[in-house]
Amino acid sequence: MLKHILSFPSSSPPPPGLTKRGPYSVSTSRNVTYVKSNTYMNESGTAWAKFKADHRRLVSSGPVVCVLYDDFEKDVGSMRVSRFRKNESHNGLKSLKGVVSREDNVEVYLLGVGIGPKPVGVDRETMAGWVLGAFGRKEKMTLENETVGLLELYVDEIIERDGDLGDVNKFNARMTRMWKRRLEG
């Protein structure tokens, strides 16, 4: 989904507004800086390390970093904000966690976009094929017709709160209520 909706091949030029800087592309609008990794998700730490080196002043100013990733633990069409876990299972998040240090002075939130349910009892190779595989028609419709709007709601609220989310479980519950009201209204 993320590749389908938000990404572009690293060999192609970035969409308007994003400037390609090697392993990442960047754009700034008002007080928000958008950074897109041009690496494979499993190598996201490389993009963050380069961005951090190129933008020391910004990183040292204590920004809120919101990482958008594919969450195979959540069903298609769902979303949640979390923080890094001690034993992260997502290889891209492991890579990123490995280079985000306490000295970075950043608040990191993980915004997981559901791509599940994941297959049960499969080997690593099958799981990798599933994660990288194409979505079916039904999943594409859900992603395009629902998930994009939900993502916008989450991002708008994170910006509105200036990144001060408090308890992420309460924040997620609030977002779920807001989304349901929007769908009903």
Automatic annotation (TrEMBL):
The keyword tRNA-binding applies. Residues 1-25 are annotated as: Disordered. InterPro entries: Pept_tRNA_hydro, Pept_tRNA_hydro_sf. GO terms for molecular function: peptidyl-tRNA hydrolase activity; tRNA binding. It comes from the Eukaryota. The keyword Nucleotide-binding does not apply. Keywords: Hydrolase, RNA-binding, tRNA-binding. Gene3D superfamilies: Peptidyl-tRNA hydrolase (3.40.50.1470). It holds the Pfam family Pept_tRNA_hydro. PANTHER family: PEPTIDYL-TRNA HYDROLASE. This is Peptidyl-tRNA hydrolase. It comes from Candida viswanathii.
